[in-house]
Specification:
The chain is an alpha/beta fold. It is 14% helix and 28% strand. It has a single domain, classed as UDP N-Acetylglucosamine Acyltransferase, domain 1 (3 Solenoid). It is built from 2 helices and 20 strands. Helix 1 packs antiparallel against helix 2.
Length: 187
């Protein structure tokens, strides 16, 4: 029964809901946010209350699972893409700008005797803790953990562990300031 509900929700989401107006548009009549949220309840592994999945958001699919957990009052930005094979956990009160890219899988390349296309892929989960703001077009790479109350600047390419209360910018992303007044970790 769960698989049937997931398939129906997926067809409705990718065939209709993904193309409806943004949540704040008067054309949506206040219905697009709750409609997309309802469908995600059937699609995601865990889905909090009052989520906002914006127009054009896309999620990868693997064997009847989107492998995404999203907390209360969190959002996925306009045209964002979440490749969730390795698992994505998004905490409570997370804001996400447009066109954010979250990756949880990468091609293997360690065997120099074989072409990379024959080596398969490896997955690593992404964890975004609560009260995080991710700017437009940020890229979150496999295995990244973003600490609570952090800010990820627009266009940042983030990998590894980001400590709580960090303000992170650039490519590669680096901590430029701490929101709580603590010192910046030395490189």
């Amino acid at each position: 029964m769960k698989k049937v509900a997931l398939v129906i929700a997926s067809v409705l989401y990718f065939g209709l809901a993904r193309y409806l107006p943004v949540s704040y548009s008067p054309l949506g009549l206040g219905l697009t946010k709750p409609f997309r949220g309802l469908l995600c309840r059937f699609m995601f592994k865990k889905c909090g209350k009052n989520i906002n999945v914006e127009r054009g958001a896309w999620f990868s699919y693997k064997m009847f699972s989107y492998n995404i957990e999203i907390g209360n009052n969190s959002g996925i930005g306009i045209d964002s893409k979440l490749y969730s094979r390795g698992g994505i956990t998004i905490g409570d009160d997370v804001m996400m700008g447009p066109e954010v890219l979250i990756l949880t899988e990468n091609h293997r390349h360690d065997d120099l005797t074989r072409p990379m296309r024959e080596q398969g892929a490896e997955s690593a989960a992404v964890v975004i803790e609560s009260d995080v703001w991710i700017g437009m077009r940020a890229i979150i790479l496999p295995g990244t953990r973003i600490g609570r109350s952090s800010i990820i600047g627009a266009g940042a390419v983030v990998a590894g562990e980001i400590s709580p209360f960090s303000i992170v910018v650039g490519n590669p992303a680096r901590v430029v300031k701490k929101r709580d007044g603590s010192s910046i970790p030395s490189s």
